[in-house]
Amino acid sequence: RGMGTCCVSGCGDINMDEENKKFTLAGKEFHEGDYISIDGSTGNIYDGIIETADAQIAGEFGRIMAWADEFRKLKVRTNADTPADAKKARELGAEGIGLCRTEHMFFEEDRIAAFREMICSDTVEEREAALEKILPYQQGDFEALYEALEGCPVTIRFLDPPLHEFVPTEEADIEKLAKAQGKSVEEIKAIIASLHEFNPMMGHRGLRLAVTYPEIAKMQTKAVIRAAINVQKAHPEWTVAPEIMIPLACDTKELKYVKDIVVATADAEIAAAGVEMKYEVGTMIEIPRAALTAADIAKEAEFFCFGTNDLTQMTYGFSRDDAGKFLNAYYDKKIFESDPFARLDTTGVGQLMEMAVKNGKATRPSLHCGICGEHGGDPTSVEFCHKIGLDYVSCSPFRVPIARLAAAQAAIAEMND
Length: 417
Ligand code: PEP
Ligand code: MG
Description:
2 domains, 49% helix, 417 residues, TIM Barrel, Glucose Oxidase, domain 1, 13% strand, binds magnesium ion, alpha/beta, binds phosphoenolpyruvate, 3-stranded antiparallel sheet, 8-stranded parallel barrel
């Protein structure tokens, strides 16, 4: 859904012959390489290529969306990491970026080598040298995002996944890295092995990476601020005010440690450029402890964004990557009505959110709050976000229209209460 790619699943009428790479449907045999067209909304499958057109907000649809915008109180942002996604989302009515996952920018061919060098470095100097190679790329990515958003808010989330996700697995890549680092293949393999974690989603990720390697946060801050300064200079009519988001905080001191690095780096960049620029540093609320201690966390965070994918995972104790394997039994046995990773659990996870908003705003009345987990594009979850007074929901580009509509419906329902 996030990629705007449709899917028909569970089509029992298809007779699949995987071994011979063919299937039969409605009396016709289809072979590998034949074209079919699918409609993800109706579940229909058509023979051949049907001409398609990109979704557009126009005509009657456009009229309804304009009505929705008159009523809704929630802003609707998008989760986007590329200018193309951001542009699509803007066409669909997004009012900003609520989540830019920067790790996707590290995986690209021209940067992954430098990032691997940083992981395998022995000293701070070596790490900084490797990160220096990535800085111009990151800065370029952020400039393109700021350009695409034309002065609308952009929240950039700092590196989140565990480092082992970046290391090479192919022998040839390991050899290449060993050569670049002046190390033996065995040494590189030992470093890779040392990064293994039994439970990586609860491991060395999120702001824990910045606690151990502050150089990463420094590099990302430089890239964000330099990009913002350049785009602001090019477009004085816009207000480019970076929102830097630190993921996975669970403690206010931990957040302060990373925030101090970000602020020192950002202030130095702004002073060196001789410009004035406002920026904010906020955090994601993704760990129950962060929600429980929101009053304290808000002393450091200038905004909260609920990462309800992780918050659901950690509140239920269900792995977000594996729960699908057993949740069907919960639906069959009427224990759960829906997937808590798709529709927000307003009773448990929602209670943590409501409490965090209330306590956070008590500490810092200017605190703005949003959501950027998958739930940000789910209508019933959007309704709940309206009720607890969030400022915005952020969802993948193609879910922006439904979020706008759901936000309006929530506001109208409240008027009628
Ligand atoms: C989340 O946890 O809800 C979130 C948006 O972050 P990610 O999915 O990247 O962990
Ligand atoms: Mg998360």
